[in-house]
Amino acid sequence: KMVKVYFSHTCTLSVQGPSNPGYNTNPVPVPVITQTDTRDKWSKKMDFLLSVIGFAVDLGNVWRFPYICYQNGGGAFLIPYIVMAIFGGVPLFYMELALGQFHRTGAISIWKHICPIFKGIGYAICVISLYVSFYYNTIIAWALFYFYSSFASVLPWTNCDNAWNTENCTNYFLKDNVTWNNYSRSPAEEFYTRNVLEIHKSDGLSNVGGVRWQLMLCLFLIFTIVYFSLWKGVKTSGKVVWVTATLPYVVLFILLIRGATLPGAWKGVVFYLQPKWEKLFETSVWVDAAAQIFFSLGPGFGVLLALSSYNPFTNNCYRDAIVTSLVNCLTSFMSGFVIFTMLGYMAEKRNVNVEDVARDKGPSLLFITYPEAIANMTGSTFFAIIFFVMMITLGLDSTFGGLEAIITAVMDEYPEYLAHRRELFVLGLVVVCFLGSLSTLTNGGAYVVKLLEEFGVGSSIIAVGFLEAIAVSWFYGITRFSNDIKSMLGYYPGLFWKVCWVAISPAFLAYIIVSSLLKPAPLQLFDYKYPDWSITVGYIIGASSFMWIPIYMVYKLVWTPGSLKQVRPSNAAILNWWVTTWDSSLNLNGLNQVESV
């Protein structure tokens, strides 16, 4: 077993095991190797912080949090949201940052240091990240299509005089006494469904239709940007995030000011925040709060492990975890005001209640409801352009993080093949992601996106996060993990963090898993209800990532020599005994830091 140490030269330690018949009593040479500087490092601390914020703050902060908030009690929802963040989300976020910074390696090879039998978690994370790249970048491609379409004096979703419109298209722009019924479709909705997606040409998942070449071109441009942002490592991506992570806040602030000045905006804010205290007694509200904070902060995806692995060893990851978590949560809260001031304005224009306007959720909120509100405003072209620029940059940041998790994990696991071939490996990965996304570019591609989002990530990533927390806290050991943090920061984590890591955070994840399995929500997009066979396909997709965990466990047990009952004299056991026995008595002058065992 290798012990990497900051040391001036290479040496060999001879360790004598304890007098136990299960141990080999012969001296065991323990090589100590020099910590090299070959691993990339962030050029500046802000490069890292902006990369983490850019990954955590994504499109979901803009569409998912506002919808879940008003659906689950408005202002009252903030109570379970904050509770789940404090006891679940933030501790897991801090744990991943500390693990990555201490072990300085990706999501696969890190398990050699923590608990080798759980190495399948790293492979599962890479598969899940691939599934995310198959659909998430398609959503960014939709935003790019809108961005291009916004360069017009009259936005194309403001009237019903286009080739894609139907007799149900109801235009209430600059009109009074417009009749609105259940069959009415706004120009913005028909632009999205019949021009961008052309979903009417698909019969569902059984016949998704052909590939939309316009969307394929948009996706190609997106992946081109992604490649040239990642091909040289964190030194290039760290510069790109100065634009992609900061620009969304400028745009959000502009849209917030503009939305607050619109007639009816106050109706939206009241609807957004008016507390419904009785909702706090519903289990589903707490489940939604837990799921939202988990997917918002993003532990378990391997991204935080990868990004923090390029930090200096003594970087204050505790402060980073608190700051970035606060920024993420406050961004979600502010996005709610941006969205609901516009919804209040739309309700005023339609002369209906806010809840009748706020029926859309998910991407529809960003591609139908908000563009429709923008089209009603003075200077609509300008606001449409900056809004979709914000969406593109929000999405790109998260894509950078997701693909960097795969790149770091695989390159750290196979350095002998990939150490000097990063450009080629990143190119191959981007090509695989592009080809895997083709099904989402078809006429029925939105159905595929929904299926991948629900089953490709969903419960799988929560289960992965649960096993990761268990492996670190219970198998690696909370004492050893606390010592790791002490060696980096100079002080031990407090009792609160230890209790959260050992008990509360795993229980938090188990709660989400059990609740989602006991009460699965019916899957539907627009008027299309997913058939039973597609749900089965979804479960297969979910299992295809998670299955690598038990497969690797079986592989490890079968191919490791010896029986399960035998107590083996492993190097790890000897090193563990050596550290326990001799750490307090060894004089480590000249050893700056013990980095990993």
TrEMBL record:
Q: Which keywords accompany this UniProt record?
A: Disulfide bond, Membrane, Metal-binding, Sodium, Symport, Transmembrane, Transmembrane helix, Transport
Location within or outside the cell: Membrane
Membrane keyword on record: yes
- Show the SUPFAM superfamilies listed in the entry: SNF-like
Q: Which GO terms describe its molecular function?
A: metal ion binding; serotonin binding; serotonin:sodium:chloride symporter activity
Query: What GO cellular component term, any one, is given?
Result: plasma membrane
Membrane-topology annotation of the record: Multi-pass membrane protein
Give me the disulphide-bonded residues: 160-169
Q: Which GO terms describe its biological process?
A: amino acid transport
Lipid biosynthesis listed as a keyword? no
Q: Transmembrane ranges?
A: 48-66, 78-99, 120-148, 211-230, 242-266, 286-310, 322-347, 382-403, 424-449, 455-477, 489-513, 533-555
Q: Please state the span of the N-terminal signal peptide per the UniProt entry.
A: none
Q: What is its main location?
A: membrane
Which sites bind Na(+)?
54, 56-57, 61, 296, 328, 394, 397-398
NCBIfam families reported for this sequence: Na_transp
The family assignment reads: Belongs to the sodium:neurotransmitter symporter (SNF) (TC 2.A.22) family.
For this entry, the protein name equals Transporter
Species this protein is from: Oncorhynchus tshawytscha
Name of the coding gene: LOC112248251
